[in-house]
C-alpha cells in the first residue's frame, strides 16, 4: 500500500522504460571517428544533390527547341538564305541548333565533310551535357565504401574497449563503437543509393537529348542530300 502511494516512479516488476534515440543523439553517440565519417558523407550528399539539380536544369534547357525550327532551316537553306539560317541557329542557342549551325557553315563542301563536322561538334555537346555526371557515379561507389570504413573503425573501437574492460562484457562499453559501426554503414548506403539513382536519371535524360541531336542532324543531312 505504501509502495503504491509513494510510487509514481516505481514500475511494476518486469516492465522496462522505452528508450528513444534521435538521429542527432545517435550520431553524437558514435564518437569522434563516426562523426568525422558522417560529416564526409553529408558533404558528399550535398555535392550529389547540387550536381543533380544543376545538370537537370541544364539538360532541360538543352532539350528545349522550337517545333518549327527545322522547317525554318529547310526553307532558308532551300532558298539560299544561308546567313538567315545561321542567325536562326544562333538565336536558338541549343545543342541541336549549334550542330545544325556547324553543318550550315560547311554547306558547299562534300556531304561527308559536313557529316564529320557535325559529329565532331556533337561530341563536344555531349561532353558538355555530361559535365560532372561522372562525379555522381564516383560518389555512388565511394559513399558505401566510406560507410564500411566507419563500420571497421567502429568494430575496432568496440574490440579495443572490450579488451580494456578486464574481461567483463558490458553493453555500455561497446555502445560507442557499435554506434559508429552501424550509423556510418546506414549513412554510406543512403548517400550511395541517392547518388546512384541521380546518376542513372541524368544518364537517361542525357541520352534523350543525344537522340534528339542525332535525329535533327540526320534530318538536316537528308535535306542536303535531296535532289534539287
TrEMBL record:
Keywords: Cell membrane, Membrane, Protein transport, Transmembrane, Transmembrane helix, Transport. Its main location: membrane. The keyword Phosphoprotein does not apply. The chain crosses the membrane at residues 32-53, 133-159, 179-199. One of its GO terms (cellular component) is plasma membrane. It is found in: Cell membrane; Membrane. It is a multi-pass membrane protein. GO terms for biological process: protein import. Pfam families: MotA_ExbB (PF01618). Residues 93-214 form the MotA/TolQ/ExbB proton channel domain. Belongs to the exbB/tolQ family. This is MotA/TolQ/ExbB proton channel family protein. It comes from Pseudotamlana haliotis.
